[in-house]
Specification:
The protein is α/β, with parallel strands linked by helices. The chain contains 14 helices and 24 strands. The protein binds ligand EPZ. The site of ligand EPZ has 24 residues, from helix 1, helix 5, helix 6 and helix 12.
């Protein structure tokens, strides 16, 4: 298994180009199933999760070809309604095929994704919404068995603004008979991006990006031709790294409008931030100031940035309280950062982070995607050598992260074993 080795203490300087957003690309590639034409997607990031979703879509009968950051998908040959456990377990977002399969093939047999390191991650709200649309849902031997002769528009009230739940239901409702309202919908930019892609295919979706989305079902949709939005979490990760190392970094090809809460907290932590149209210039402070955060749904502070920001707070002046309100087990990175000298105490869903003057390099173990990123950041700031193991987690969601950090002057390398 590969690992990443860093020598800390270098101030990052230069420009980093942000790739397409993993969490936008996944649902948008799946939405290609809603038409029997050939859709074209550009700015698709080169990630393990994207490889996984392409494998699943081809298993269902879609024809896929990839050239650089362009992916073409022709779902005209969609003929298999079964998404097997060995594919779904590798990537939970595979559950997104449920809605489109019901819409196109009127049936679906999709493995339950199961939990993951950060939590149980149930899909009860996905299933309730599909039942509201008229699907019959059964759980058998670890699979969701869903059928619907004709999906019909409905009023769907989500108990929680689930991101992939909103996406699944948008895709199912797009070809349903009549109008659907999704209330308490997720408002993330990736939802808006999916709606934009689907409306470009002939869907009729209004209100995406707000908590009430209206979908007027249409009889058929045409192929898409769309570019994937920039990855706001990748951008936030590099911005935090610039602040952490006292660096001077331009984060380009990003969407500043998607990063309001992260920019706000980094400024409170002392970073100087200049916002341009499609780039953000971050100058790290001489002294990092402790800041409290609570993770919230968009536009609140993103849970996917919690681990990275905790590393910044671990070497800040003062004490910060970091509360994780979205997932029940998203503090796994804390034990590893403490091995590097951080002073963090967990109490329920909050972590009390007492800033220390410095972290010290150590061998550490990645546990999930964003925890892995936080350990890379810790290694860039720590005195001495850090070795981050099990970085397959990282490759799921960050494109060539060590190459991008190296271009910013970091002493970082990937070691294959
Ligand atoms: C999406 O996951 C993202 N993944 C996650 O990014 C992100 O952390 C999360 O949204 C929150 O922003 C993708 O978009 C592929 P949720 P998702 O459904 O949709 C509970 C990353 O690092 N819930 O919004 O699975 C759930 O347990 C990943 O890129 C139910 O109870 O998240 C959680 O507590 C990690 N029942 C909360 O809602 C349901 O049916 C939010 O989950 C669905 C969700």
């Amino acid at each position: 298994m590969d690992r990443i080795v860093t020598e800390g203490g270098i101030q990052l300087k230069g420009e980093v180009k942000i790739s397409g957003a993993k969490n936008a690309a996944l649902p948008i590639l799946v939405s290609s199933l809603l038409t029997d034409g050939r859709s074209t997607y550009s700015n698709v990031p080169d990630l393990k999760d994207i490889d996984s979703i392409k494998l699943l879509l081809s298993t269902l009968g879609a024809e896929i070809d990839t050239g650089g950051d362009v992916v073409r998908i022709d779902a005209g040959g969609l003929n298999n309604y079964k998404a097997p456990y060995d594919l779904v377990r590798k990537m939970r977002a595979s559950i997104l095929v449920l809605g489109p399969l019901l819409a196109r093939l009127k049936k679906a047999r999709v493995s339950l994704p199961g939990g993951c390191a950060i939590g149980a991650r149930p899909i009860n709200l996905h299933l309730k919404g599909l039942a509201d649309l008229g699907a019959s849902i059964e759980l058998k031997h670890g699979y969701v068995e869903a059928r619907a002769d004709k999906l019909k528009g409905a009023e769907i009230y989500l108990d929680l603004p689930t991101v992939t739940g909103t996406e699944n239901l948008m895709m199912a409702a797009a070809l349903a008979e009549g109008t659907t309202h999704i209330k308490n919908a997720a408002c993330e930019p990736e939802i808006e991006a999916l709606a934009h892609a689907m409306n470009g295919m002939g869907a009729d979706i209004q209100g995406a990006g707000t908590s009430c989305i209206k979908i007027n079902g249409v009889s058929s949709m045409n192929p898409a031709s769309v570019s994937i939005i920039p990855d706001r979490i990748e951008a936030g990760t590099f911005m935090t790294a610039a602040a952490l190392t006292g660096g001077d970094v331009r984060v380009s090809d990003c969407e500043p409008d998607h990063l309001g809460s992260v920019i706000n907290k980094l400024r409170l932590a002392g970073a100087k931030i200049k916002i341009n149209k499609k780039s953000i210039h971050v100058t790290g402070p001489d002294e990092i100031i402790s800041v409290d955060i609570k993770t919230r749904t968009y536009p609140g502070f993103p849970t996917d940035m919690q681990a990275q920001f905790m590393v910044l707070m671990s070497v800040a002046k003062g004490v910060s309280t970091i509360s994780e309100t979205i997932f029940e087990n998203r503090f796994i990175h804390i034990s590893e950062i403490k091995r590097m000298g951080a002073d963090i105490t967990v109490s329920g869903n909050s972590a009390i982070v007492k800033g220390v003057p410095m972290l010290f390099g150590a061998p550490v173990m990645a546990s999930d995607l964003r925890a892995s990123a936080s350990l890379i950041l810790a290694g860039l700031a720590a005195k001495g050598k850090t070795e981050v193991n099990r970085i397959y987690h990282l490759d799921r969601g960050y494109e060539s992260i060590e190459k991008k950090f190296k271009l910013l002057g970091a002493a970082i390398k990937r070691v294959s074993s």
